[in-house]
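agent> Task received from the user: take the single chain below, predict its 3D structure, and emit structure tokens. No templates, no multimer pairing.
agent> Plan: (1) validate residues, (2) run structure prediction, (3) serialize to tokens, (4) report one or two observations.
agent> Step 1 OK, no nonstandard residues flagged.
tool_call: predict_structure(input=
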Amino acid sequence: MNGRFSEKSLGRFLTGIVFLYQALAAVVLVWALVLGIRWVREPFLGSFYEHTLVFTDTGSAEGSAWEFNKVVNSGDQLLAVNGTEVKSSRDVRNVIVGNFVPGENVDLTVKFKSGEVKDLSVVLQQFPDESVNIYLILPTIISVIFLALGIWTFGLRRNEPAGRAFIMFASSFSIVTSTSFNLWTSHEFSLIWTFACAVAGGSTIALALSFPSTPRLLINRPYLRWSGFLVSFILVAFAAPYIFNTNDPTGYIPQWRLIYYYDALCILALLGFNFYYAFNSPSPVVKSQAWSTLIGAFIAFAPLTVFLVFGAVLNIAFSPYLFLPVVVFPAVMGYNIMRFRFLRTDDLARRGVMYVILTAIVTIGYALVAAGAGLLFGNALPQNYLAGIFIMVIALVLEPLRTRLQNLTDALFFRGSRVVTEQLEDFSHRLTSALDLNAISLLLLDQIASTLTPDQVHIFTYDTLNDFYAASSSDGRRPTTDIRFTSASPLVSYFKKERLPLYLDNVTDLPEVLKPEQSRIALLGARLFISFPGKDRPNGWLALGSRLTGQPYSPRDLRFLENICDQASVAIERVQT
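)
tool_result: status=success, residues=577
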């Protein structure tokens, strides 16, 4: 009892910390945007510099507003403005703002990385609108997306370890993106940015140890999930003294680099855990979530990981565009953690291959038509007429071509998916002739037995007269089991809230809400439960044992079962009304 109480108390404490961190992310987002809008209205030197007044390579190499960016490089330090020594961006602002306007000249004293000190005359600029969009607006939009995903998760999964880890992850990235512009301009959030960047790594480790499954080592040691944050705090403690140390203006760079390497290592650890689960987990639910996580993580983190690992070595300048693909990962993770229906990765792959081929055909076709028309007509046929004719032809043939290409790619690369689609169409057709629950159950039993060959199948449907869920019969006489579940059963409550199938590798590892039903579920002997979704309550569920072949259920099997259960649920509602 004391153990359970302390566990609940710890959960509330952690939820409180997560809430405060998320609130910090929201405040920082608004404050950073206000400071950014103020800064872009002030005269611009022509190059970004960081908190120790060290210039950075971040910024455009084109345009008159960025002329000074071609003169200085990363590692060069600003020492004085118009003869006034400066130690911070506030000192620079006090000298320039109110005393100069864009178009006027100021004298800057710069200490170059080589040790040479020079006085340079610089024309002040107005910060360009296109740069505002790239360096301020774009990161702010991405930050809002991260924060919204975190708030969404907090509302639904704040009491779960995976939910809390994801909220910390999303909030950290929200802070990192919202303060990136401030990091190059007025520097109020440099320390908070460093903290959030390190915490992003710790939250990634917590996420890897919580989702889609928890390693057995952590079942009785849940505190180990948060071990990554200890490393984050140590890295921040080492970096903090260097952040505003103008006597060692580049001392913070190696400390930041350690944080970058740690973040990259944490991302690789997350991918490694999911790679293991994708191939070795006995649960098809975990496998499906791991695969979608891997796909989302690869798309999201490949560019950013390359920058974190090789940016300093290859002199790759940072660009806010690196944040764009990162949005894919929290979207996929949030979807998975919310436990909505599985992402249809096979459908996405099928359509992706088809559209890649279609794009190639259209591109090559236009190039050939343009080249042929040029040879035949020279300049007699205007370019806009050629484009119009080609678009008209494409409009006429695109749909038949798309259909043929989809059939071709299915036959060559996704033959199994095509077979499953045909089976579902046949099952749907046969369901239309089922006039009662017994007929629907027999169709389900026949379809599942012929496709997946489980050692036992139980189909539970709701008895509206007696207010309980009972198993149907397999031979028209006796039910497959005498076990019944009332409408108030924890299993029914579980399927009211959860949309994913329930897979039990071990009956002792039941979700907490199902512990009261442990003995009845054990007697049932089923491994896989899939609900028949209804409006106010589940219309029932499918309970399957292990496969007779000894093979585990695959993610494709789960998607097939979900589809036939959806169709069966519609048929059940039809015969019960």
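agent> Step 4: summary for the user.
Residues 1-5, 340-345 have pLDDT under 50 and may be disordered.
agent> Done.
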